[in-house]
Amino acid sequence: MSGFPTSSIEQTPGFVSYIHKKLDDRFVHFGTRMRLIGTMKNDPTKGQSPYGVNTYYTVAPDTSDQDISIGGASGGLAVLLNPENNNGYYFEIMALEENDVSKYASTTSEVHDVIFYKVQRNNEPGANDETKAVPIKLWGGIANIMVDNLQLVGSSRVTAADVLPIYDLSVEYEKIGKKLRFYLYINNVLIKIVDDEDPPMAIITAAVTSKSLIGKSATITTSNNHGLVAGTIVSVSDLTAPFNGRYKIDSVTAKAITYTVAKLFFFFFFYSFEVLVFKGFKV
Fold first, then answer.
1. pLDDT in tens, 143-166
2. pTM of this prediction?
3. Under CATH, what is the fold of the domain 202-278?
């Protein structure tokens, strides 16, 4: 992962920058059109140079003409994103310098230019700081992602290939029990179905039977046991103002939650009669 240069405290490797977009309806399919800017090179080994290149992989070369480091630049689409701790899912493509990463025969299980990963709290055994978020790779593949060199001839771009290096990325998801299933598309072609058995958030569906407001203290009663606890941050939608929004639960009973109506940050997605719970992060 890489992003714009930051202070000496936050180094560029391991840093992700994004633009967060607030949605006002329930969606399960998301998409974006993107390109990775760079220049094409007449080189048998490194055929392109993406803008803002960083080292993405360090490998053991199989032949003398292979480099130890593979550089590139990347971008993509984030879904189910919690902007307070960057918890969520990221679908990312990389323009790598190498012409053919598949030639690294002993490392092809690790070297990819298309990846899908999640960011969640560091819950590894013996972790020094469980409040930190860490990336976990769920899937990777090879698609020979090219840079866009921005050269125009008439109405056509000049590239080293017959296909324009402009990519439509989309992600669709569905909830199956406690797991989330993701459908990943590039240029309207389904490339992979990925299941996450341990999502960084729990999606709980509960129909609201009643709601009340005393001062700034809001109480919502559900038809079923919700299983939430005090201190959990939730997003509530499809009610009326001022109940909708993102709040920290003050107190609970088996079928009710109470929270203080005070504007925090609105979440990326809103769910009809659903509460989205973020697990394991301190407020």
1. 889 998 877 554 455 544 456 788
2. 0.69
3. Elongation Factor Tu (Ef-tu); domain 3 (2.40.30)
